[in-house]
From TrEMBL:
PROSITE patterns, alphabetized: THF_DHG_CYH_2
Protein name: Bifunctional protein FolD
InterPro entries xrefs: Aminoacid_DH-like_N_sf, NAD(P)-bd_dom_sf, THF_DH/CycHdrlase, THF_DH/CycHdrlase_cat_dom, THF_DH/CycHdrlase_CS, THF_DH/CycHdrlase_NAD-bd_dom
Domain Tetrahydrofolate dehydrogenase/cyclohydrolase NAD(P)-binding residue range list: 138-280
Catalytic activity: (6R)-5,10-methylene-5,6,7,8-tetrahydrofolate + NADP(+) = (6R)-5,10-methenyltetrahydrofolate + NADPH; (6R)-5,10-methenyltetrahydrofolate + H2O = (6R)-10-formyltetrahydrofolate + H(+)
Species of provenance: Fructobacillus pseudoficulneus
SUBUNIT field: Homodimer.
Family: Belongs to the tetrahydrofolate dehydrogenase/cyclohydrolase family.
Amino acid sequence: MGTILDGRALSKDLKLALGDKVQESGLEPKLAVVFDPTNDGSRLYVGMKQRAAAKVGIATEDIAVDPDVTTEAVLKIVADLNADDTVTGILVQAPLPEAVNDQEIFSAIAPAKDVDGLGAYNQGMLFGDQQGEYAVAATPQGVMTMLAHYDINPYGKKAVVVGRSQLFGRPMAALLNNADATVTLAHRYTPREMLLAELKDADIVVVGVGIPNFITGDQIKDGAVLVDVGMNVVDGKATGDIDFDSAVDKASFITPVPGGVGPMTIATLLENTYQAALNQNKQ
Ligand SMILES: Nc1nc2c(c(=O)[nH]1)N[C@@H](CN(C=O)c1ccc(C(=O)N[C@@H](CCC(=O)O)C(=O)O)cc1)CN2
């Protein structure tokens, strides 16, 4: 049976250490959270982020947008937050209402306050494998932290990332590439047979497509590392994109859902928020 990559336990340790760092720094980080309160998922995740932030000494401010809000109106909110010196981090919870262009909003956040690393500047730094301080999207960065914690080094490995969203797949592929894996980025237009052929040889598989049981144990190589970024609800229960029961005996390492990548996303966001406050204090 594969080793379970326990994101819940690791994130607890990271948050404890972060709470100490925030306290010792004397900083007062404040995270502004722009979100659509009519979206059930956003309400749930924003609530989880706020509670976790409070525990480590990071203040939060909610900005709930109306369902009929326009891109222009959200750009104005972001411009005001950029100019507010008491706000050290800005998070725009995706998705915003349909009429809003999320990517335009992410890129309007001042790079120093873009704690989710989703704006064009920070993504450009990541894709260029630049040195220096910049935030990386919380989910893929959390995956890398988890791999490092369990001594899983992507160097020289074949990695397959399934899903190419801005929040997960694109930055995940860039991080694995920067860590010297050979990376395939599969997506909804990848023919099924091509995906199955890629999976058969993959040492590391990271999947986030939002389809329960999209990947099953018979499709993966013996000893593969399996990371499940999927977050689906089936019969009222959180479920990933990997059929855990059929995959756990073939994998060398595997993340559960819940308790794997999700908690790491939140811990990483808080670390990025602290780091942003620290960087702004140095300027
Ligand atoms: N601006 C952003 N928007 C969104 C992001 C993001 O990183 N930045 N990610 C997702 C959702 N997400 C955080 O926002 C998130 C999803 C799930 C979890 C989590 O801890 N899940 C638990 C299970 C929860 C449950 O029981 O329902 C787990 O996996 O253990 C954290 C964060 C969308 N938007």
